[in-house]
Amino acid sequence: MLDVSVSRRQPGFALDASFRVDGPGVVALFGRSGCGKTTLVNVIAGLLPPDSGSVRLGGETLDDVSAGFHLPPERRRIGYVFQDARLFPHRDVEGNLRYGLERAPQQAGAIAFDEVVALLGLAPLLGRRPGQLSGGERQRVAIGRALLAQPRLLLLDEPLASLDATRRDDVLPYLERLHEHYAIPMVYVSHQFDEVMRLATHLVLMDAGRVTASGTLAEVSLHPALRSIVGPEAVGAVLEGEVVGRDEEAGFARLRVGAGTLRILSDEPIGRRLRVQLLARDLILALEEPTGISVRNALPATVVTIAADDRHADLVHLDIGGPRVIARVTQAATRQLGLRSGLPVSVLVKSVSIRGQRHS
């Protein structure tokens, strides 16, 4: 459990943020540059004391201003991975990793050196100095060092921000593996929504120092506050489903989501859980399931609400058997189809973008 409710004033900026997450997972702090994400992470780490409020982790109080209590950062057992790796240049990779072990408390069930090296693919790098590493390799070493300090919470402040697209794609699978392998809760700071979709289980949106929305990724993916950050073209529901069948000849997997099934291009095996995003612009609504068209995906749905998106479009929220999705249609189409709350429709999916995976 991570329970944060803090405020802090500093020149030109005010932080007043609250959120709570129960259980392990990846909490993504998401928002535009300058919205307060790093300030909030530094408060959680103990590097910046709050002016008021409290921070609690796993039932233990880290900050309580009303009680005059502030636990020093070195006693919090929080691992911190910065935008720049901050490795010791005079130590090789193994030496940097073992520095994390040197700082770790002695405990049963500790994360082992060899385990971290294998998980992050660091074995070929152990004898190299930081100056001989790529940016992505340095970040993997920094993550490994933080893990070997045996943290009970891992903070990652835009760890991929300094990497180009290729290096980011190299490191993201290791971060996914990290989440799947360990039950250590993580707070991941980013202003790249594709990273959030691949990694997060819980999403906290921030704007001007305040939390504007907080909840599961599926819940917040439908929130208007997200649309104001990522723009209308990126609006869409993030869903998780299970691969229930395969068409090997065509290279398709059949993914169960809600009450329907999607055919997606994927080589994942039956039983694997995948995360997909259905963009509002890629969904078509029909009063009956059509025939004789190229679109192969049709999901049964019920209209929940309709909200105006701009002068010419509506955002139609739809229940597909538990999960919800959004379709953007013209207001003329809303009138012609007679769309209203409670109306059963078919949702035709033109394309599905796979944004990550979760193992069952």
List the helices and strands and how they pair.
Elements: E1 2-10, E2 13-21, E3 26-30, H1 37-45, E4 52-57, E5 60-64, E6 69-70, E7 78-81, H2 93-102, H3 113-119, H4 135-148, E8 153-157, H5 165-181, E9 186-190, H6 193-199, E10 202-207, E11 210-216, H7 217-220, H8 224-230, E12 236-247, E13 252-257, E14 260-265, E15 273-279, E16 283-286, E17 297-308, E18 313-319, E19 324-330, H9 331-337, E20 344-349, E21 353-358
Parallel strand pairs: 3-9, 3-10, 7-8, 8-9
Antiparallel strand pairs: 1-2, 1-4, 4-5, 5-6, 10-11, 12-13, 12-15, 13-14, 15-21, 16-20, 17-18, 17-20, 18-19
Helix pairs in contact: 2-4, 4-5
**Termini separation:** 23 Å
Helicity, as a percent range: 10-25%
Task: Give the name of the CATH architecture of the largest domain.
Answer: 3-Layer(aba) Sandwich
CATH homologous superfamily of the largest domain, by name? P-loop containing nucleotide triphosphate hydrolases
Query: What value does the Rg take, in angstroms?
Result: 23 Å
Task: Summarize this entry quickly.
Helices cover 23% and strands 38% of the residues. It has 9 helices and 21 strands.
Question: What are the defining features of this structure?
Answer:
360 residues; alpha+beta; Rossmann fold; OB fold (Dihydrolipoamide Acetyltransferase, E2P); 6-stranded mixed beta sheet; 5-stranded antiparallel beta sheet; 21 strands; globular
